[in-house]
Design brief:
The chain has ten helices and eight strands. The radius of gyration is 17 Å and the shape is globular. The protein has one domain: Glycoside hydrolase/deacetylase (TIM Barrel, Alpha-Beta Barrel), CATH 3.20.20.370.
């Protein structure tokens, strides 16, 4: 029996290497959500024209104003970081911004409340090794970061065991782990969510590794390639 897989990629920070990443994703017809922090944008990591061009093909999501730990802010500063960043991006691209990403994966109940109040439809965390549909659209988990993995916790090892993957994979090439997780999704269905940073791929000189993975997951039957916002809209409907 063939299972349907939802494939999502999302990329944080919109740094100056975003154009290179965008070109690679376009080559393999992979949908993506780009989370843009306003201060980084104003520092010309990508310019206004590039952001508008990117939004014509891919989704733009908010990553706050200053990429700050939201759990350390009072309500007034939370509102500025979460709500104002949405308004600034919407004014630039001329479209609604419905997806949000917690900087450094840091959030609590109050932060989630502000994200909902600002009018977003969903929010992404940095929790990895999940292939499940989210129970909460404002605590969306991911499958893998496009970077070297580390043995960080018992929860990480337990998550991989539940997916019938050995923890030794964490010490090996992240692309092989990513392929194993994709194969697991094909076998059982679910949501495959790859995320990362263009600057990190550049820093570690891993563009060939990323392309190897995109080649592996692209153009598969029974796989729907969507943005995070598109996926959230489907679940809401």
């Amino acid at each position: 029996m063939k299972h349907t897989v939802i494939a999502i990629t999302s990329w944080d920070d919109a740094d100056k290497h975003t154009a290179k990443l965008f070109s690679l994703l376009e080559r393999y017809k992979i949908q993506a959500t780009f989370f843009v922090p306003i201060v980084a944008f104003r520092k010309r990591w990508i310019n206004k024209e590039q952001l508008m061009s990117l939004s014509e093909v891919q989704e733009i999501g908010s990553h706050t104003i200053t990429h700050v730990d939201l759990t350390q802010l009072d309500d007034s500063h939370l509102s500025r970081e979460i709500t104002h960043s949405k308004l600034v991006l919407e004014e630039i691209i001329g479209k609604r911004v419905t997806s949000f990403c917690y900087p450094c994966g840091r959030y609590d109940a109050n932060v989630v409340k502000h994200v909902k109040h600002a009018g977003y439809s969903c929010a992404r965390t940095r929790v990895k090794y999940s292939l499940e549909n989210p129970r909460d659209l404002f605590k969306i988990k991911t499958t893998l970061q496009a970077s070297k993995q580390y043995l960080l916790s018992k929860q990480t090892i337990r998550a991989l065991r539940l997916l019938r993957l050995g923890s030794k994979l964490l010490l090996d090439d992240w692309v092989e782990l990513a392929k194993h997780l994709f194969d697991r999704a094909l076998a059982r269905g679910g949501v495959y969510h790859l995320w990362g940073h263009a600057w990190e791929v550049e820093k570690k000189n891993e563009w060939k590794k990323l392309e190897e993975l995109l080649t592996y997951i692209a153009n598969r039957p029974n796989v729907k390639y969507v943005t995070l916002g598109q996926y959230a809209s489907t679940l809401e409907a």
